């Protein structure tokens, strides 16, 4: 039998995500739950899923280490684990996220699996993807949902081939010369790492990835959006500021803070990465906040965060060693192992990702009307991760955390605080007030 040829070597961030998944109890596995709003049988769904599997190379991917990790894109659809669940409706998102997140992907065999939730009439009501974040990011999952909807509605204009990422995101971003500005652009922003305390320090085998989501009604979101325009501040910066202010409710809160924001690298590499590619195209920015800065009012903090992110963006500092193009895999393994050990603090700060308007990104969909995305947080890096978006005008806020580093009670208190600040800010500001 002829041996399969590798697609390419994993990039540094991809290799780290693979190691985190394997060493930290499924960490950074990426889950998307989406709701089906039209009559759809399991057989019809499976045809659509097999079509997508054969279309996109990264859905056929697996990882082989010898000794460095390489992508192979030779996995058949029949090798993908598929679960059909009856009598599981209405969907209990919190329980299902925890259950599915605890099932670790066998990345040497496949890079995703999915669960189908069926009602008493045999119709599909929900589908949950669990994918390797090394292979795909949240943006990719939205594209898969879009492509599935197109297939199900018989879109005859859909492509029969799909673009690929010939290099990793670290290689793409590291090659952008115009972003490499002097570090002095963000001088004065190098505060000591805050190291917020965990509630209970345990190693990765005892951690559980958890998630909660909440909805902001369309009227409230519309008002919030208009407020952001009036105040000349991005709505993402408002979300970031509230994330820091709400964190005062966490037991381990410290007045100095760190904020991480994922960035779609396609905006940085517009001529290099196809907008329809399925792959891991995400990089991150991290900013520090002093105790004086975290005590600011919401709008002042939002403006400050916006300025800091802009300066950090212009600096071009997206990756640090060992996440470099010519990486040392042993260093990656050691870094992942360090995340898996019991610590009494979080290595990083709160992470906030605003995906934006889903329908503006995917176009109108016929079979799918709602969805949520979150990564499994068992690496223990962040006290809280927040993924936000809008779907059909409503604001969707998905919170991720790791038990017992953060207790369920503390997470729920944080969620209540966040949504109250968000609602109060929107409702207490008069758009017609004189400024």
Based on the model shown, name its key terms.
alpha+beta; six-stranded mixed sheet; five-stranded mixed sheet; 14 strands; 435 residues; 32% helix; 12 helices
What does this structure look like?
It comes from Microbulbifer okhotskensis. This protein has 435 residues and is α+β, with helices and mostly antiparallel strands. The chain has twelve helices and 14 strands. It has helices at 12-23, 42-55, 93-101, 138-152, 169-174, 218-230, 235-246, 291-294, 298-315, 329-340, 358-362, 408-428; strands at residues 8-9, 30-36, 61-65, 69-73, 82-85, 112-118, 124-131, 208-216, 257-264, 282-289, 350-357, 368-375, 385-391, 394-403. The strands form three sheets. A six-stranded mixed β-sheet has the order 8-14-13-11-9-10. Strands 5-6-7-2-12 form a five-stranded mixed β-sheet, with helices on both faces. Helix 3 links the parallel strand 5 and strand 6. Helix 1 packs parallel to helix 10 (329-340).
Unreliable sequence segments: 181-188
Biggest β-sheet strands, sense, barrel: 6 strands, mixed
Structural class: alpha+beta
Oligomer: single chain
Instruction: Report Rg.
Output: 21 Å
The share of residues in helices is: 25-40%
Order of helices and strands: EHEHEEEHEEHHEHHEEHHHEHEEEH
How much beta, percentage-wise? 15-25%
Mean pLDDT: 90
Q: How many DSSP H or I helices?
A: 12
Shape: globular
What is the number of strand segments? 14
Strand order of the largest sheet: 8-14-13-11-9-10
Head-to-tail CA distance between termini: 74 Å
């Amino acid at each position: 039998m002829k041996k399969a040829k590798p697609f390419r070597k994993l990039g540094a961030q991809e290799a780290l995500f693979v190691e985190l998944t394997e060493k930290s109890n499924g960490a950074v596995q990426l889950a998307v739950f989406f709701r089906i709003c039209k009559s759809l049988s399991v057989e019809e769904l499976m045809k659509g899923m097999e079509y997508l599997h054969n279309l996109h190379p990264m859905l056929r991917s697996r990882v082989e280490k010898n000794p460095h990790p390489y992508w192979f894109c030779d996995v058949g659809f029949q090798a993908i684990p598929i679960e059909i669940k009856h009598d599981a409706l209405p969907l209990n998102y919190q329980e299902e996220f925890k259950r599915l997140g605890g099932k670790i992907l066998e990345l040497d065999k496949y890079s995703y699996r999915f669960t189908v939730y069926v009602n008493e009439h045999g119709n599909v009501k929900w589908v949950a993807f669990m994918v390797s974040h090394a292979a795909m990011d949240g943006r990719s999952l939205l594209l898969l949902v879009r492509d599935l909807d197109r297939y199900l509605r018989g879109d005859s204009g859909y492509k029969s081939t799909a673009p690929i990422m010939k290099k990793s995101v670290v290689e793409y971003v590291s090659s952008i010369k115009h972003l490499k500005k002097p570090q002095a652009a963000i001088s004065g922003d190098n505060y000591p790492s805050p190291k917020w305390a965990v509630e209970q320090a345990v190693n990765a085998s005892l951690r559980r990835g958890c998630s909660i989501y909440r909805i902001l009604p369309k009227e409230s979101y519309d008002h919030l959006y208009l407020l952001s325009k009036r105040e000349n501040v991005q709505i993402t910066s408002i979300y970031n500021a509230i994330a820091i202010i709400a964190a005062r409710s966490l037991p381990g809160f410290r007045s100095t803070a760190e904020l991480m924001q994922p960035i779609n690298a396609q905006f940085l590499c517009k001529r290099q990465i196809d907008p329809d590619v399925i792959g891991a195209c995400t990089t991150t920015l991290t900013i520090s906040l002093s105790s004086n800065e975290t005590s600011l009012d919401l709008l002042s903090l939002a403006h400050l965060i916006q300025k800091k992110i802009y300066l950090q963006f212009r600096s071009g500092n997206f990756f640090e060693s060992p996440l470099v193009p010519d990486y040392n895999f042993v260093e990656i393994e050691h870094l992942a192992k360090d995340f898996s050990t019991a610590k009494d603090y979080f290595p990083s700060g709160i992470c906030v990702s605003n995906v934006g308007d889903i329908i503006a990104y995917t176009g109108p969909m016929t079979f799918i009307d709602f969805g949520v995305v979150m990564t499994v947080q068992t690496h223990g890096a962040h006290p809280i991760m927040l993924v936000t978006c809008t779907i059909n005008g409503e604001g969707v806020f998905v919170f991720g955390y790791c038990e017992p580093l953060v207790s369920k009670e503390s997470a729920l208190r944080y969620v209540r605080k966040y949504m109250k600040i968000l609602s109060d800010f929107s409702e207490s500001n008069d758009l017609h007030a004189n400024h």
